């Protein structure tokens, strides 16, 4: 839960990084057009020709330059996390963390550290939908006074695999199948589940992926996790272990799976648009930054290995301490220059933050620079404005494609005497980075620690921690995903794995698939075995989580009641009770919600001499793009709405997706036309005569986010 210090930030000025970028901004307003060499262009409409009907001349340097630049506009998309949206912001520390780390930005509460944050889906291409069932990337670049620190995390606290060497396999399995490039941005296909069914270590992550965490309502309503255990090192050189957390002030919320699929068609940019609009309207997204600290001497005191990235530390064992707040307050000026060219790297750390031997983390330390070299075209990607630190860079690295820096002097080596020995190495006291001197005494082996072999107990912990509705969603997600798998043996193998998490869960999924849960899990269960390994030595080892249920794992326990930025459709037509609409819009807007009038056609809706502008027509709007619906009274308006099948469908869908719906008493005729017209209204359906009571109850209902319990009624 976010702490008391988390009051919304009023207004934040541009960060140091945003100001620094101004040197690179271009603005054509009021300017003459030029070529790239600065020559003013007189005709941008016609190429140079040998006569009006003749061939284009090679001499036309203006045409050649324009076309060549266009021909080279594309760069490779990220091999994973290709689809992303980003924003600038700032991080403010609540209280110094000097006991644990010497990182300056975690020691000085007066510093406002600029950040650039990129959210992403993992599997889809750059142009894919925002709403697949997928993990979301949550990558934060802190431009600190000691260089850049990148916290390249996800919205789930664990990962699919334990060793980086399996990452290419995992990604090959989840990406569209190589022979026909189908399906786009979806895990529901044979190769993904084939791989997963052979990799029991992925089970915990799979439970998260099958949960509603994989279909967020908004990028602003997701948690973020550093996933790996990192190290913090204090000024005395003493280290402790740390897990990093981001907790959104608006709470963690999701959409329904049916809704996610429909949003993908109606507005594939749903999350990108939502983030953009929130920032443009001054509703700055905010997260609290939290840490779970484990003393070095307690490393071995858990029933799981801190170095195993398929495990989380239950908050019941180690609480998350809120240490600061991040606010995103500015949209990028240019998608390509900033969001596309930003280069994150889990190895970008600052003094006071260090790595552990988590084998996934260790492999990532190689991959991120390597991938930028191909994606951004060479070793000078750190000089791209968005990647540049806000502090000066001095070293003996030189040259390469697209070098921007003009290094002065004649020495580019160290030690040197000609250059006075510059640049100097920084002492510890000068905040020079010195790797933590962990003691290592071991044989060189290709191996996996036995302490990594309990693959199921935290998957069970996660499942047990979910509310009834959330558990039901997991059943449905497994049934959907495995239902799309064509090879029955894969479904069967997955049922064997799911039965290790929870027998009842496996049985429900098996029922939906028309299969039986295998009596005994297929042996061997783990197929990720070296050539000379004995399968018996690689099978999962049953374990038991010290914690049986963890409240933090269920979204049912998240922050509720805040309706800021929630979108509300007001379904109306000519003849609407304009006073009622105005009252409701005023009440909603006062709470920060965003009401929009949706009518059968664009223009205005009228009643007597008054009129209201229509925001969307039923043709362009869809209920999946709103959080709630209000049907005002007004005799001819309610008759029109009641007789409009798109409007009734709008309401039916909102009901099916468990949203708050409000009716004026004299709009009951509309309600009667809906699929839920016969039912006793639940708490999410509000009907009131008194407009003030109606607005208050409706606002309360929107603040609940969803009435998932309604799903039981719908069946
Ligand atoms: Fe990444 N990951 N990853 N990853 N990852 C990339 O780097 C990789 C992992 C994450 O918005 C790539 O610049 C390996 C875990 C995010 O630009 C690449 C392994 C977590 C982003 C890469 C992992 C992440 C990436 C592709 C297993 C959460 C998007 C483009 C050892 C803690 C950053 C790029 C952005 C991107 C490799 C596992 C998060 C190829 C080898 C675990 C948020 O370098």
From TrEMBL:
Q: Could you tell me which residue ranges the Catalase core domain spans?
A: 34-422
Q: Which GO terms describe its biological process?
A: hydrogen peroxide catabolic process; response to oxidative stress
Amino acid composition bias (Basic and acidic residues), ranges on this chain? 7-27
Q: What is its EC number?
A: 1.11.1.6
Care to name a GO molecular-function term for this sequence? heme binding
Say where the cross-link 3'-histidyl-3-tyrosine (His-Tyr) occurs.
345-368
Q: Does the keyword DNA-binding apply?
A: no
- Map out region (Disordered) in residue numbers: 1-29
Q: Would you tell me the Gene Ontology cellular component terms?
A: cytosol
Q: Which SUPFAM superfamilies match?
A: Class I glutamine amidotransferase-like, Heme-dependent catalase-like
What is the active site of this protein?
Answer: 81, 154
* Highest taxon, organism lineage: Bacteria
So what does this one do?
Decomposes hydrogen peroxide into water and oxygen; serves to protect cells from the toxic effects of hydrogen peroxide.
The family line of this record is: Belongs to the catalase family. HPII subfamily.
Q: What is this protein called?
A: Catalase
Q: What is the scientific name of the source organism?
A: Flavihumibacter petaseus NBRC 106054
């Amino acid at each position: 839960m976010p702490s008391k210090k988390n009051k919304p930030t009023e207004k934040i000025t541009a960060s140091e990084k945003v100001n620094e970028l101004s040197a690179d901004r271009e603005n054509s307003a009021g300017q003459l057009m030029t070529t790239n060499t600065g020559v003013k262009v007189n005709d941008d409409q016609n190429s140079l020709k040998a006569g009006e009907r003749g061939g284009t001349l090679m001499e036309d340097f203006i045409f050649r330059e324009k076309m060549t630049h266009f021909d080279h506009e594309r760069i490779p998309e990220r091999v994973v996390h290709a689809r992303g949206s980003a924003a600038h912001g700032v991080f403010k520390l609540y209280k110094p963390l000097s006991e644990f780390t010497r990182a300056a930005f975690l020691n000085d509460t007066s510093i406002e550290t600029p950040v650039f944050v990129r959210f992403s889906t993992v599997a889809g291409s750059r142009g894919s939908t925002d709403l697949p069932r997928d993990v979301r990337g949550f990558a934060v670049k802190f431009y600190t006074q000691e260089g850049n620190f990148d916290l390249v995390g996800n919205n789930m606290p664990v990962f699919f695999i334990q060793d980086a060497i399996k990452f290419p396999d995992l990604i090959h399995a989840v990406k569209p199948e190589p022979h026909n490039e189908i399906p786009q941005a979806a895990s529901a296909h044979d190769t993904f589940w084939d791989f997963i069914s052979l990799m029991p270590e992925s089970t915990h992550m799979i439970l998260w992926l099958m949960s509603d965490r994989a279909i967020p309502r908004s990028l602003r309503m997701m948690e973020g996790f550093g996933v790996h255990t990192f190290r913090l090192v204090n000024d005395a050189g003493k280290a402790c272990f740390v897990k990093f957390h981001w907790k959104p002030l608006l709470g963690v919320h999701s959409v329904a799976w049916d809704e996610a699929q429909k949003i993908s068609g109606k507005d594939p940019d749903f999350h990108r648009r939502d983030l953009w609009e929130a920032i443009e309207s001054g509703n700055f997204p905010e997260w609290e930054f939290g840490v779970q600290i484990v003393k070095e001497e307690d490393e071995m005191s858990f029933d799981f290995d801190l170095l195993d990235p398929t495990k989380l530390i239950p908050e019941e064992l180690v609480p998350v301490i809120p240490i600061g707040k991040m606010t995103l307050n500015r949209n990028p000026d240019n998608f390509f220059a900033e969001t596309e060219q930003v280069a994150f790297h889990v190895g970008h750390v600052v003094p006071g933050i260090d790595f552990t031997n988590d084998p996934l983390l260790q492999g990532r330390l190689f991959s991120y620079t390597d991938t930028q070299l191909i994606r951004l075209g060479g070793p000078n990607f750190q000089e791209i404005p968005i990647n540049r630190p806000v502090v000066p860079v001095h070293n003996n690295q030189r040259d390469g494609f697209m070098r921007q820096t003009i290094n002065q002097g004649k020495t580019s080596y160290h030690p040197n005497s000609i250059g006075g020995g510059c640049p100097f190495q920084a002492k510890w006291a000068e905040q020079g980075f010195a790797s933590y001197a962990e003691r290592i005494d071991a044989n060189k082996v290709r191996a996996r620690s036995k302490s990594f072999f309990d693959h199921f107990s935290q998957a069970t912990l996660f499942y047990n921690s979910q509310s009834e509705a959330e558990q039901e969603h997991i059943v449905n997600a497994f049934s959907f995903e495995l239902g799309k798998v064509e090879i029955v043996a894969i479904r069967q193998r997955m049922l064997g794995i799911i039965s290790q998490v929870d027998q009842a869960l496996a049985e429900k999924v098996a029922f939906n698939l028309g299969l039986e849960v295998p009596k005994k899990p297929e042996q061997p269960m783990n197929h990720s075995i070296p050539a000379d390994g004995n399968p018996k030595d690689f099978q999962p080892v049953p374990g038991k989580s010290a914690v049986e249920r963890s409240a933090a794992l269920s979204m049912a326990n998240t922050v509720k009641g805040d309706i800021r930025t929630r979108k509300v459709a007001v379904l109306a037509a000519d003849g609407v009770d304009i006073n009622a609409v105005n009252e409701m819009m005023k009440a909603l807007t006062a709470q920060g919600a965003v009401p929009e009038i949706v009518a059968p056609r664009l223009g205005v809706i009228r009643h007597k001499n008054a009129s209201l502008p229509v925001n969307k027509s039923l043709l362009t709007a869809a209920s999946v793009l709103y959080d709630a619906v209000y049907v005002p009274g007004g005799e001819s308006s309610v008759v029109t709405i009641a007789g409009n099948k798109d409007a009734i469908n709008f309401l039916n869908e909102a009901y099916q997706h468990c949203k708050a719906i409000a009716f004026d008493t004299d709009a009951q005729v509309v309600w009667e036309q809906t699929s839920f017209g016969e039912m006793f209204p639940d708490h999410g359906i509000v009907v009131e005569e008194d407009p003030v009571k109606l607005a208050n109850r409706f606002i309360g209902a929107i603040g609940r986010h969803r009435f998932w319990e309604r799903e039981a009624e719908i069946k």
